[in-house]
Design brief:
By secondary structure, this protein is of the alpha/beta class. The protein folds into two domains: 160 residues, Tetratricopeptide repeat domain (Serine Threonine Protein Phosphatase 5, Tetratricopeptide repeat), CATH 1.25.40; 179 residues, Rossmann fold. The chain is 58% helix and 8% strand. A five-stranded parallel β-sheet has the order 2-5-1-6-7. Helix 3 packs parallel to helix 5.
Length: 348
């Protein structure tokens, strides 16, 4: 019995160290320590933190293992807080999508919808993963096959947009395209819409961005203060070139959705870029709804950071990109992107 208590105490202490490593953003070391421990007991909130470390070093299968264990724990704890439950289900749905395990992703996106947690972005993700796992062509077939999932939740305008702008009916110029914007401008939702209509979409935040500590490129001309996380995410040029080459070899349009500290320096690799512009006050309102705890006390430092990012993003990101109104419905913004690629002369 004493040995069990001692082991538990040792595990708790080491888990505390792992979580501390995550909090100071030393993700590689946190993952290394977690793999050594191979824990059999971890709370849902702890699992979410550790899974984030795996995600940020692009170890998606390990991320899935951590979150799957948390899902099992959730079924054993029926009184799990609804917000935590929503966060966990969305996290594992995203993890399966990143790993391109579409049938499993569809299961959890559908669960999110059934529990009433799904927003428009989640609905588009469900369409995309279901299409890929079902090998169906055309949204109308999906609406007929899964009326409760799609027919009851999509507006007529969305069905029209998703049907008319499907990759099987609209051909785009092959190449790499970038959809950028600050936090809260709707990039992820647009990316999921584009994926739902069959286009190849790469999440720049989780599939490309590298989190670096102590590298020279971090020495930004901008002062990011204590919240320097954004200044530590970069898009390596080699990764952007890899996806450009993939687009050309597939003879398809490939979209990178996201933004990074140095993203404006690699825009030349893509054929064309789009910048989602949203007024600062609207962005902050969206971010407050997305992260209520972070904004609970007004978050003056984070608010200041968002304002500075808004200025630098507009100065450098929007300069060489087609600017779109991010306050418009996601389907409309996505249609404008596709219309630009069909009509715009992007030949070099």
């Amino acid at each position: 019995m004493n040995e069990d208590v001692e082991n538990h105490s040792n595990w708790a202490d080491r888990l505390s160290i792992i979580l501390k490593l995550v909090s100071i953003k030393n993700y590689s070391e946190a993952v290394k320590q977690y793999r050594v421990l191979q824990p059999d007991s971890i709370t849902i909130r702890e699992a979410l933190k550790v899974a984030r470390a795996f995600r940020l070093i692009h170890e998606f299968e390990d991320e899935i293992l951590v979150l799957s264990a948390a899902i099992e724990r959730m079924t054993e704890e029926p009184r799990t807080d609804e917000k935590v439950q929503e966060k966990l289900i969305r996290a594992i749905a995203k993890a399966y999508s990143r790993a391109e395990r579409w049938s499993e992703a569809a299961v959890f996106w559908r669960e999110l919808l059934n529990l009433g947690f799904a927003g428009r972005s989640d609905l588009y993700a469900l369409i995309g993963s279901t299409t890929k796992s079902d090998q169906s062509t055309g949204l109308l077939k999906l609406v007929e096959k899964y009326p409760e999932d799609f027919g009851a939740h999509l507006t007529d305008e969305e069905i029209e947009a998703l049907t008319q702008y499907n990759c099987h009916t609209v051909k785009l110029k092959p190449g790499l395209y970038i959809v950028g914007g600050g936090n809260g401008t709707g990039k992820s939702a647009v990316g999921r819409f584009l994926e739902a209509v069959g286009h190849v979409v790469i999440d720049g935040d989780t599939q490309i961005a590298e989190y670096n500590i102590g590298h020279e490129w971090q020495k930004s001309r901008f002062d990011f203060g204590d919240h320097a996380a954004a200044a530590k995410f970069s898009w390596p040029r080699r990764s952007i070139e890899k996806y450009r080459d993939m687009a050309l070899s597939l003879n398809r349009a490939v979209f990178i959705v996201g933004w990074a500290h140095n993203a404006w320096k690699v825009l030349d690799i893509g054929r064309l870029g789009f910048w989602l512009r949203v007024p600062l006050d609207v962005r902050i309102t969206r971010l407050r709804a997305r992260e209520p705890k972070r904004w609970a006390d007004g978050a003056p430092e984070y608010s200041s950071l968002v304002k500075r990012h808004n200025l630098t993003g507009e100065a450098f990101g929007a300069k060489d990109m087609i600017v779109l109104d991010g306050t418009k419905p996601v389907a409309e913004v996505s249609r404008r992107i596709i219309d630009n690629l069909v009509c715009h002369n992007v030949a070099r």
